[in-house]
Amino acid sequence: LAATIVPPPPSMLASHTTALAAFRLVLASGSPRRADIFQEQMGLNVEVRPSRFAEDLDKSAYATPHDYCLATSRGKALEVASRCCGAGEAGGRAQLVVSADTIVSVDGRVLEKPRDEAHAREMISSLSEREHEVITAVTLLLVPRPGEAPSEQRCFAETTRVRFSRITAADVAAYVATGEPMDKAGGYGIQGKGGAFVQSIHGCYYNVVGFPLNRFCREVADLLGLEKA
Predict the structure, then answer these.
(1) C-alpha 117, offset from chain centre
(2) Along the 229 residues of the chain, how does pLDDT read in single tens digits?
(3) What does the alpha-carbon distance between residue 96 and residue 181 come to, in Å, rounded to a whole number?
(4) Distance between CA atoms of residues 174 and 74, nearest Å
């Protein structure tokens, strides 16, 4: 398995934890995997506020899957900021809203969460013995004072290439029967049973899980001026 995991070094995590403790940190996502990355891996006190953004953008209006993913991530963050960062929130502290959206792209086609089990079987089968891209877009909104508009907005996307080995129809049926694919982009979870299909990855492992941890740390360091400290 040719993976590039690249976790942030301990010093980076320590500086981020200290700096972000001054903020009300809002995760605009209902993904338990993203919450675990913030709470368990980074040790951050994060307030989970799942976005109500419709996630029904017209894919044909975007030049690339990358652009579509960025737009969805931005929509999620702005919806949560407008609803959850009002004057009565955060006790006067600055707020940082973080959203993310993950898609799978194969031959320029966007694969999101499967609609049903038949759709999941079709998705997973389409990835057999070939490479696909996992794209996670992240939006950071810095709200300096409750009730104010964001003073800074930063959007970025990370791409990881993943190759599956050959998957039989029986493999696909057994995996879909576990229920694991149903809430995951592309219909599989690399951190779960779906990891058995993965022959190789090139790029950030955590990006495939649903949140590019190393890139997030670097972007936050730049946003908050930590690299200059």
Answers:
(1) 23
(2) 455 555 555 555 666 677 787 888 999 999 999 999 998 888 888 999 999 999 899 999 999 999 999 999 999 999 999 888 876 665 667 889 999 999 999 998 999 999 999 999 999 999 999 999 999 999 999 988 777 777 889 999 999 999 999 999 999 999 999 999 999 999 999 999 999 999 999 999 999 999 999 999 899 988 888 765 4
(3) 31
(4) 36
Among the listed residues 56, 67, 101, 171, the single catalytic one is 101
**Burial profile 99-115: b = 16 or more Cβ within 10 angstroms, e = fewer:** bbbbbbbbeeebbbbbe
Q: Which two tokens stand for residue 223?
A: 């946003």
- For the question of residue 101 being annotated catalytic, the response is yes
Q: CA-CA distance, 23 to 176, in Å (whole number)?
A: 40
- 113 closest CA partner among 189, 41, 224, 34: 189
CA 106 vs. chain centroid, Å, equals 18
Q: Find tokens 């049926």 and name the residue.
A: 173
Question: In Å, how far are 33, 95, 115, 145, 179 from 183, measured between CA atoms?
Answer: 11, 28, 9, 35, 9
Q: Which residue has the tokens 């990370």?
A: 158
